[in-house]
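The records we work with from here on pair a chain with its fold. The integers have meaning only within a learned vocabulary of local backbone shapes. A complete example follows; check for yourself that the lines match position by position.

:::
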Amino acid sequence: MILENKKLKKGLSWLAVLLWMGLIFYFSHQVQQQSWNLSHTVLGISVQVIKIAQVLIVIGLAGFVLIKLKKRGITIGIKELVLILIAAYLLYTLSIELRHMLVPPDLHHFIRKNAHFFIYLVLGVLVKVALMNSGVTGFKAIGIGLGICVGYAFSDEIHQLIVPGRGGQLSDVVIDSCGSGLGMMLQILFVKLLLKRNHNKVSEND
């Protein structure tokens, strides 16, 4: 039964890797206009999410202040509400200025490059998990994992050379490789923290 579970975990983990690689292939196979349309859609959604998050954070902070004042027995009248509203407005205005300062001028290009990094970060995690479930650990797993991810990144850029309007770039391979490397490091860190937590639980029970 245990052996069957291990085989199932191994199979599912490699299936997840293949499915994610398929998703990367699908994105890379899009012609230039389709790819740019997708990026602009993501850009529009991202901007709206940031704006909504700004409003929710300000409302949350205002609510937090009201709760704290009530707990301290301070009576909340018109004067206090006006002060809180003014502070909330100033905070929201400041958050807009910070957004303008922190957001890169070419946000579309920034999103496209970070999408490369993120999608390969996930691939790195999935490959590392699959290798772990296959009994490959340590530096060997990191070496094989990087080999798989970097090799796929190269093949992905070569694939884009034959897609109308697209082109392969060595800089994208570097970005992809860094993303997959970080993904594997995060997976290793997560496993170590999980093992440490389990060890501490066992020690407490003893």
